[in-house]
Specification:
Number of helices: 12
EC number: 3.2.1.22
GO molecular function: alpha-galactosidase activity
Bound molecules: 2-acetamido-2-deoxy-beta-D-glucopyranose
Organism: Erythroxylum novogranatense
Strand content: 15-25%
Shape: globular
Largest sheet: 8 strands, parallel
Protein name: Alpha-galactosidase
Order of helices and strands: HHEHHEHEHEHEEHEHEHHEEEEHEEEEE
InterPro entries: Aldolase_TIM, GH, Glyco_hydro_27, Glyco_hydro_27/36_CS, Glyco_hydro_b, Melibiase_C
Distance between the termini: 18 Å
Amino acid sequence: MERSWRSSVLLLMLHVLFMSKEMNGVDAGPPKHRLLMERRNLLANGLGLTPQMGWSSWNHFACNIDEKVIKETADALISTGLSKLGYTYVNIDDCWAEKARDEKGNLVPKKSTFPSGMKAVADYVHSKGLKLGIYSSAGYFTCSKAMPGSLGYEEHDAKTFASWGIDYLKYDNCYNDGTKPTVRYPVMTRALMKAGRPIFFSLCEWGDLHPALWGAKVGNSWRTTNDITDTWDSMITRADYNEFFAELARPGGWNDPDMLEVGNGGMTKNEYIVHFSLWAISKAPLILGCNLRNITKETMEIVTNKEAIAINKDPLGVQAKKVRMEGDIEIWAGPLSGYRVAAVLLNRGPIKYSITAEWDDLGIPPTSIVKARDVWEHKTLKTQFARNITATVDSHSCKLYILKPVS
Ligand SMILES: *[C@@H]1O[C@H](CO)[C@@H](O)[C@H](O)[C@H]1NC(C)=O
Ligand SMILES: *[C@@H]1O[C@H](CO)[C@@H](O)[C@H](O)[C@H]1NC(C)=O
């Protein structure tokens, strides 16, 4: 695949800037040991070989959560068949704890909403063959300010999470002490590594200090953007920011443009298909954010697309990039295993367009004859294609193809 010179130059500039100014903060050890420490992978937990999949409470429920919602969501992941497709993390987001720690310094699950405690919730979720995620902040409070953060309590909280059977930690950036994320996040990485249980570490520092440049040593995924909202503009701009760092995603460490809004009602069906398509080819975490207890047939159709999920989980683990842009039209593409290419023909504009993607832009040899699989129509097109593929694409819609050279 031809590298996009634009993103390569940008990345190079960021690297130079970053290495010279910021990396000194990653480890507080004596200066002569710094270079060694920086190169060490702090997080050798073996997790995230494909992007994480599951559900999180935040996008739909925000702070209105309790153990009933969490358990019923676990039930729904099973009864809908979503867990069989890989959606296995059940992630509790902000607002799960009491405002104050107990006299021993422990975080305390909120008595009014999680009366059984987190160990019981974890046991329930595990009994279904699922995994439980939890949330904290590299600050004095979490973003809701309704509960404490873990700054200064990293080892203590990591041990607590492990003792409850937690499998995943989303670590936010609110109410911090003004020190750099490169100082605060690795402290939790080390604490998790000492906690005696593999815990997936999802960094959520909002892209403040270009976490793609240092995140792979520290976490299994890193947010590249501010929070998503359930609108077309928010969704598509998260995808744009996230694409800058495409070359830095790899098995074990993924760029995270935030959780899915599919099914929350703020976008059209075609817009949600664009959302899911871009997240799939961007090797983004597929963390559902709707209410699974009353998920509609239309939402299920989108989030259960096995071929889109297979693109996301492809063993090559290469994030797709924008390979051609012209006004409202964009081509995004990335290589898949088996000499295949995943391509999105995207129409961001207000009217219908005919979009052509050329082999040269897609990284397909110029003389190849190509079979095209339409991932949303679930069919292999009868025509075989030479040099390019063209489709008519509605406003705020896309085509998602898997292209396979046959000669
Ligand atoms: C699901 O229920 C919630 C209330 O819990 C409601 O806000 C939402 O609109 C419902 N969604 C659908 C698709 O019925
Ligand atoms: C697409 O390829 C065909 C040959 O298969 C060629 O005739 C046509 O000019 C190409 N179109 C574009 C827009 O490049």
